[in-house]
């Protein structure tokens, strides 16, 4: 539910500049273009570009994933059709009873079914029983559908978010990173059950429903049972270590596998590595936001690596072979005679590794370095060359607009 609440105010298609009907290939193409244009390495100190880069990365993390995109589309469709704030037509208008979060309702229930709302906003839609979702709120207020037949306790543990910082080359090649987390973890004494022997009996106060119902006027109210904590069952011999909850607070170490090619700001999800759920229920998820440090040699453009290599005038004029670094071992690159300053040479397959097994390219830009100090023999040779160049008719400013 927390992730869907975050989606409510996001327009991921708008961030990528594509329509909601765009193909996966178009989304990927748009992401690469925007990521390249707004990458912090290409825009040092530009906070606007940095924020744009982060939004683009977050958008692609959702709509670039088939499963997440489907969930996101369904969620936004519900909002657009009045699934959240647009209930005024079904729930009433002026004179209705106020609900948390701005929801309102008239005194009649004939226009809607609370059970349907629980189907939409309950655990099946990504929420959790008792997590404050709309189904729990309305089920409690109207004493229908929301609590009957299911426990009031959370059905899983809480999700956890953390952030790590890795080197550029680690992000490009992939790595593992140790993370220490402090939070609820399964009790080792009772193995998460909350009981010494595992014996439980149905709560006599709520009859196993997990709710206590109270009738008040036109509506029935429901609240979690305090005797069983909303579980519907009472532990006969609570574990002394965790007090019957099945969890204890402790620090644990997790090794996070960072996939090759991760970009700055991307989130990596580790299912089941969040906080432990109470009394043996599943754990939540861990979301790791990856921050990538700039590299002194390489920058990145999509799956391609970019590098600027210093060369001499002679190497460009006469041609030759230069050695350039890669993410692995150095490679030799041929420079054709007469190569202009600033030209980019492409080395196939030496960029970022893709999931498909292929890799981007290495883009090598040559940049002339002019010597500051030359000895007498070098100066003499250079003057001889300059004269020969002039005698050949070469004019470096020929065709230049500023030469007029």
What does this entry show, briefly?
The protein is built from 11 helices and 17 strands.
Radius of gyration: 32 Å
Helix content: 25-40%
Counted by DSSP, the helix tally is: 11
CATH architecture of the largest domain: Orthogonal Bundle
Based on the structure, what is the oligomeric state of the protein chains? single chain
Domain J: 11-76
Subcellular location: Cytoplasm
Organism: Corynebacterium stercoris
Main location: cytoplasm
Task: Kindly list the characteristics that best describe this protein.
three-stranded mixed beta sheet, 17 strands, HSP40/DNAj peptide-binding domain, 3 domains, Helix Hairpins, four-stranded mixed beta sheet, 404 residues, alpha+beta, single chain, repeat, elongated
